[in-house]
Amino acid sequence: MNIKIAVIQFPAANCDLDAIHVLNNVINVQADLVWHNHFKESNYDAVVLPGGFSFGDYLRAGIIAAHSPAIDEARIMLKDGRPVIGICNGFQILTEAQFLPGALLRNESLKFSCKWVNLKVENNKTACTNKMNVGDVLAFPIAHGEGRYYTDNLKELEDNNQIVFRYSTESGDLTEEANPNGSLENIAGISNLDQNCIGLMPHPERASEEILSPKGTVHGKLFFESIIDFIKRRVS
Amino acid sequence: MQANFIVEIIMTNKEMARDPVGATIKRDLLAKKGYDMISNVRSGQYLRIHISAENEENAKEIIEDMCNKLRIFNPVTQNLTILRVSKS
Q1: d(Cα A149, Cα A143) in Å, to the nearest integer?
Q2: pTM (2 decimals)?
Q3: What residues in A contact B71, CB-CB < 8 Å?
Q4: Residue A65 has what DSSP assignment?
Q5: From 3.40.50.880, 3.30.70.1230, 1.10.260.40, 3.40.1400.10, which CATH number describes the A4-235 domain?
Q6: How big is the A-B interface in CB pairs under 8 Å?
Q7: Chain A neighbors of B13, CB-CB under 8 A
Q8: Which of A147, A166, A194, B19 has the fewest Cβ atoms surrounding its Cβ within 10 A?
Q9: Where are the alpha helices (DSSP H) in chain B?
């Protein structure tokens, strides 16, 4: 099958081309860069909302993009089970659009945090983790100022197994020191109930090639390969 | 008959959602400069909106409705306060 993935470009996106590059040249699928006003869901099997600073992040990161026509299109994909993935600013957009619960607040340090972190996989049934094992520890970089995950309904997230990634040490311990932004319960990424919509602050597209990775790991590939696998299984 | 009003709104983080901006202002500026009578500072966002409406009550209603509908404030983490409605 000819899989097609859209990467949405909002004004001030800056990780859009990284996502396109990895999908096209590392994962070897067709990915199109689509301007947010031109996106038509019927052409695509999955959509990625990349990182950056949509609309200057004015008012709150992600809120203005959450009202864009691209999100109305993505909502159709969300409902029929196609993957809707938000990375960094894309995660902020997904919470503001209420595709995902909770909110992303200013980092507790008040600093923009840009470094490699370790993530523990908590749920391997989702559209972007089905090639991983629960308990795997992945190395991804983060680059954000507003990544402190907060929800007023933590129990529901836990009960429904919606926590996908937590910040951890290299050996998988969920310590305070491993939490780069003060996120509640070290939460780095979550999913919706149907597990086709995932948002995460770290950047898998910057962790998919050896040359970019300080320890030569390519864990980001597993993330994108999971999406492809999810699409294939969904269609067959 | 429409008239022009200014509606001022503020959005602050809920007590449950920690506010590191307010905490830093208090801890690293006010307390260090001797203002130890200050027990808490919460930061927020302020918007001053010019609007044409029938009267002050109508202006307030439109703004409240707009803020809820478009999530101008995030109800998960923020409280919305309409600070003032005045004639422009």
Answers
A1: 14
A2: 0.93
A3: 63, 66, 96
A4: G
A5: 3.40.50.880
A6: 37
A7: 105
A8: A194
A9: 20-25, 56-69
**pLDDT for A179 beyond 80:** yes
CATH, residue B48: 3.30.1280.10
How far apart CA A109 and CA A148 sit, in angstroms, is 10
pLDDT at A230: 97
- Nearest-by-Cβ selection for A110 from B17, B20, B72: B20
Distance between A106 CA and the closest CA of chain B, angstroms: 8
- The amino acid occupying position B20 is P
Query: Nearest-CA residue of chain A relative to B21?
Result: A110
Please list every residue in chain A whose beta carbon sits closer than 8 Å to the beta carbon of residue B29. Answer: none
Contact between A152 and B76 using a beta-carbon 8 Å cutoff = yes
User: Model confidence over A185-212: pLDDT tens digits?
Assistant: 999 999 999 999 999 999 999 999 999 9
Q: Is residue B50 part of a domain?
A: yes
> pLDDT, tens digit, for every residue of A53-97?
888 888 999 999 999 999 999 999 999 999 999 999 999 999 999
User: Which one, of A84, A101, A100, A206, lies nearest residue A144 by Cα?
Assistant: A206
